[in-house]
Amino acid sequence: MKEDPKHIRISEYNYPLPDERIAKFPLSVRDQSKLLVYRHGEISEDRFTSLPSHLPAESLMIFNNTKVIQARLHFRKETGALIEVFCLEPIEPNDYVLNFQQTEHAAWLCMIGNLKKWKEGTLKREMAVKGQPVTLTATRGECHGTSHWVDFRWNNPEITFADILEVFGELPIPPYLNRETRESDKETYQTVYSKIKGSVAAPTAGLHFTPRVLDALQEKGIELEELTLHVGAGTFKPVKSEEIEGHEMHTEYISVSRSTIKKLIAHNGKAIAVGTTSVRTLESLYHIGVTLLKNPDATEEELHVQQWQPYETAEETANITSTTALQAIRDYLSRHGMETLHTSTQIIIAPGYDYKIVSAMVTNFHQPQSTLLLLVSAFVKGNWQRIYDFALSHDFRFLSYGDSSLLIP
C-alpha cells in the first residue's frame, strides 16, 4: 500500500538555498544554460544546446505556449498611497480571449497590495494608449478568499483590455527575485514560442529553448506539440500546512487541441513534457479521460480535475491505459464537434502519484518546500535530494532564470 500523500510532511522537502544561488537575471544567450541529466539514477552535466542528443528520436515533446501578461497595475491615491492591483483571472467575461477583447469595461479577480489603504472609492490613472489619452479606473468589489473582484473601466471604446494591460501593466516577475521588473524582462521572461495570453508567471523550463534548439529537435525526428495552461499566482503560494492535506491547490485553466490528443495517441499515450505546467496538463488529461469513460456526457465543469482525484480513483484506474483515456477525450471532442478541450485542473502531484503520460521532463530547479518539488520527487521516485545536491555542488543556478534539468526516471 502506497503512502497516503495527504500525510506527506512538507518539512521533508527542504534544502538550503543560499540567495546567491538564485539567478536574478537570465544568461545573455538562453540555450547556454547548464543542463543536469538524470537518467535511470545516473546524474551528469551538459549544456542545454545538447538536449536533443539525450532524447530518443521519434519521441513527442510537449510545450506550454502560454504568454505572460503585464498583470500588475499600479495606482496612486490622492493621499499619495501606492496601490498595486494584480490581475489573477478574468471574471466578466470569464474567458481570457473574450476578456482581452473587451472595450470600456472588464472585471478580474485580483490580489491587492496595500489593501488597508484602499477602503473605498475609485482608483484612477491616466496614460496615452495608441497615441490617445485614456483614463483607467478601478473599483473594488467583493472579497473572494485572499482576492477581490475589481471592475476596470476606461473611456475609449476603441481600446481593448489587452491594450490597457500592454500600456498600464507591468510584467510580474517572481517575488523571490527581489528586484523591480526591467524592460529586458518583457522579452527574457517569455518563451520564444509563447502565443496565448493569460499567465501571471512564465513556464520557466521553456525559457532555455531557442529556434536553433527547436530546429535540432525536429532534425532528430522529435515531434513538437503545444498545449496551453495559464499559470496562476498560486504557483508561488508556499505550503504553510505541516502536511500537504492542508494545502489547497489553485485552479489553472487548460486548453488542448484535438490534433495534440491525436499525436499523443499515436505515441502510445507517452510524451516528454517541457515544464511542470505541461506535466500537470498532460497528467490531468489522463484523469479527464477516466471521467469521460465513466460519464461520456460530462459537462466542462465535471471534467475539472480535483486536487486529490488521482489518488481517490487509483484502484479503479489501475487497468486503464493512457491511450484508452486519451481516446475517450478524442471521441468526446468528435461527438461535440469541438477542436479544443477547454477545462481546468487543481491536480497535486506528490509522492504516491502514478505518472500515466509523462515519460521524461525538462524542468528548472524549484523552491524548497514547494508543490513543484513534490511533483519532481514523485517522478524520480524520491531521488530529488541526490539531484539537488549535485546541482548545488556543481554551481547550477536556481529558480525561474536558473539552469535546467532533464529527468528520465
| Strand/helix succession | EEEEEEHEEEEHEHEHEEHEHHHHEEHHE
Count the DSSP helices. Answer: 11
- What is the CATH class of the largest domain? Alpha Beta
Mean pLDDT: 95
Distance between the termini: 21 Å
What is the number of domains?
A: 2
The spatial strand order of the largest sheet comes to 2-1-18-17-15-3-13-14-16
Shape: globular
Q: Give Rg in angstroms.
A: 21 Å
Poorly predicted ranges: none
CATH topology name of the largest domain:
QueA-like
Content of β-strand: 25-35%
Q: Oligomeric form of this entry?
A: single chain
User: Could you name the CATH homologous superfamily of the largest domain?
Assistant: QueA-like
Q: Structural class, from helix and strand content?
A: alpha/beta
Characterization of this structure:
It is a single chain. With 409 residues, the chain is an alpha/beta fold. It has two domains: 5-67 and 187-408, QueA-like (3-Layer(aba) Sandwich), CATH 3.40.1780.10; 71-170, no CATH class. 23% of the residues lie in helices and 28% in strands. The protein contains eleven helices and 18 strands. The chain has helices at 96-101, 161-168, 185-188, 211-219, 258-266, 276-294, 309-312, 314-317, 322-335, 371-379, 384-393, and strands spanning 34-39, 42-47, 60-64, 66-68, 72-76, 82-92, 105-113, 122-129, 132-144, 147-154, 169-170, 196-199, 223-230, 252-257, 271-274, 340-345, 358-364, 404-408. Helix 5 packs antiparallel against helix 9 and helix 6 packs across helix 9. The longest helix is centred in the C-terminal third of the chain and has 19 residues, at 276-294.
